[in-house]
Amino acid sequence: MSLADRTFAAVLFDNDGTLVDSTGSVTRSWVTWAQEHDIDPRTLVGHHGMPAPAIIASVAPHLDPQQAFARIEQLEVDDVEDVVALPGVLDAIAAIGDAPAAVVTSATHELARVRLAAAGIGIAQVVTFDDVERGKPHPDPFLLAAQRLGVDPTDCLVCEDAPSGVAAARAAGCSVLAVTTTSTPDELGDADLVVSSLADVVFEVVDGRVRVHPRQP
């Protein structure tokens, strides 16, 4: 069954790369941190969507993980100059209106807060790295978001841009709409629908449930 033939009780949005463009901030912050520790920044490629501690463990297992995480977190929180909403995002959120929705991000609560604020996005329910023991690609963040919204995970639509997020959503039993902001269509192949951005689809609420379908040319 295609997404256009279904309705959903709730929509769960990833943040970075799905709702907001934080590429500049992320790149500048991680490169700065890497250079501070003589780490080749090229080793950071391919980790998008993963929680920061997992990235640190992968590229710099010799460093104190808590100190490294705190430093990167501060760099990113302090750098939101060019963080903006991605195409179609504000229209999608406006169309969903009061229907259940949540942001589900691998960032910390403080980082998610400043980025959502910088982009002018107001979604009250936010599940962050701070709320779960296991982040993406584990299903825990999406399961917690569904629980907080009082809906079944299998009745949720997840909007994601990263393979780890798609894997997490699938493991939680959710349907997935993926955008190619940071990944190729092949990398997002497990999604139900892959589009270039949320501007390519239309969200609408029917009898309190959310429907999404491709935007007609």
TrEMBL record:
- Specify the superkingdom: Bacteria
| Annotated TM spans | none
State the Gene Ontology terms under molecular function.
sugar-phosphatase activity
Q: Which SUPFAM superfamilies match?
A: HAD-like (SSF56784)
Checking InterPro entries in the record gives: HAD-like_sf, HAD-like_SPP, HAD-SF_hydro_IA, HAD_sf, PGP-like_dom2
The record, for Pfam families, names: Hydrolase
Which PANTHER family does this chain map to?
FRUCTOSE-1-PHOSPHATE PHOSPHATASE, GLYCEROL-1-PHOSPHATE PHOSPHOHYDROLASE 1-RELATED
Name of protein? Phosphatase
